[in-house]
Amino acid sequence: MLATKINWDDYRVRFTEKALVKNYVQEDIDDLLDYASILYNKNVPIIFDIEHFCLLVGYKESYVYRAIYNTENFYRFFEIPKKNGKYREIAEPLPSLKEIQCWILHNILYSFSASKYSKAYKKETSIKNNARFHKNQHTVLSLDIKNYFPSITIDLVIEFFTKIGYDEELALMLANLCCLNESLPQGAPTSPYLSNLLTIEIDNQLSELAISNNLRYTRYADDITFSGHFNVGYIINNARRILRQFDFEINEEKIRAQGRHQQQLVTGIVVNGKKMQVPRKKRMDIRQQMYYIQTYGLENHLLKRNLKKRNYLGYLLGTINYILHINPKDAEFITYRETVLNLMKAYN
Known about the structure:
two-stranded antiparallel sheet; alpha+beta; 9 strands
């Protein structure tokens, strides 16, 4: 639940009245109000201590303390395959901890804006929004930040909450609720947007590097892209230097410079020319499958490939919709979508 914005004058009067009833001296009241005014002006919830935080999120102190000191017991772990054949470990918080993290996300983190150069984990942004900045360029350079989330340590998170204005004990508690094993876990709802906020200075310096060389720059999570006409080695070396200042490393195996006469990919989207497209291999795969369906019939196609009808049609429609999301005017795939929708109606 989002915290309701209060009127400061009303809050100050009510707070003072209640504090006097509880025999607070005026000096202490003034100190507490000074603390509260900093948070009020940052447009974040006024939280005085852990007990107060627990009342706001609706959980007992005992639960919050267990989540802080026995964090691993509040996550489930699983792996998802990566494109290179390896696996990425996901740490998903249990529902109660996730609810607390969502409260932090919506009431505290979303009060701050990420860099305009960061295109991931923000409303109304997508890989398509990221890729469109690099259309029809002479050279596209893609760099990957190695171990992106694990490289964002709990110390940076504590510092972030402290700079907002929360006292040290609260900043430590908030950071522990957002971290696992001393860093941001990939799977917590707070991690993506926190990563954006904690890498603003990196975006500032990398964008300055781009602007000074008349280039375009965006970052989609750990995926950095420069485009324009430039000395590739010079930009790589300077980007490497900037990232190292913040204890990040470039994944040297994923450096990719693409000239105009190559397939230029930005977050998986082809940006050669003025029109963006899904890579030719994926388009050809769907084109081939639609050919088999239209030539031999759906049942024969499924039988030959040992596929289940419902799952297959859902997958096919999802892939076609993705291709049309990137290029909504693709007449060929508009026709394919109509065909698949008709098949789904016929077999339901």
